[in-house]
C-alpha cells in the first residue's frame, strides 16, 4: 500500500536575512526569509507532505511558531520528527518531488546540491528526490522578490 502527501509553504523575504533551501544555504541571495525558525520553505513543505501522507496533522500543529523552543531552529529537526512519525506507522519514503518558487538568484546547478541534501535527510537515494526551480516572471509576490515558496509531494511505501 502507498500513501501520498502534498505540502506547500511561503515565507516573506527581507534583506539581511539568511536564505536556506532544503538545508542548503544560498549565500548570494539578495534577501532571506522572515521566520520564527530558519524559514526553510522547502523543508517545511516536505514536512507537511510527510505528515499528510502519514495522516498526522501539519507542521503548525507540531511546531507552533509561538513556541520559543523553535526560535531560529534548524528545520532538520522538524523533518526528522516527521520522518519518525512516518516510520512509526510502518512506512518509508519512496520518493519526493519539489518545486521552489524564487525570483533570484537562479538556483542552476545548486538544485542538485539541494536534492542531494534532501535525499540524505529523507534517507533515500539521490535519484529519489526531484528539485525544480521556477521564477515568478516578475509578477506577484514571488516575481517582486517579496516572497519565496515551495511545494512538495512525497510517496510513502510500506516497510
Ligand atoms: Mg514555514
Q: Given the structure, what is the number of helices? A: 5
* Poorly predicted tracts of residues: none
Shape by Cα distribution? globular
Largest sheet: 5 strands, mixed
Helix content: 25-40%
Beta fraction = 25-35%
Oligomer: single chain
| Spatial strand arrangement across the major sheet | 4-1-7-5-6
The overall pLDDT average reads 95
The value of Rg in angstroms is: 15 Å
Q: Kindly name the structural category.
A: alpha+beta
Termini Cα gap = 10 Å
* Total beta strands: 7
List the helices and strands in order. Answer: EEEEHHHEHEHE
Bound small-molecule species: magnesium ion
What would you note in describing this structure?
This protein has a five-stranded mixed beta sheet with strand order 4-1-7-5-6. Strands 2-3 form a two-stranded antiparallel ribbon. The longest helix has 14 residues, at 41-54. Helix 1 (41-54) packs parallel to helix 3 (75-88). It contains five helices and seven strands. The mean pLDDT is 95. It has helices at 41-54, 59-62, 75-88, 110-122, 140-143; strands at residues 2-14, 20-21, 24-25, 32-33, 91-101, 129-134, 147-158. The protein is globular and about 45 Å long. With 159 residues, the chain is of the alpha+beta class. Bound molecules: magnesium ion.
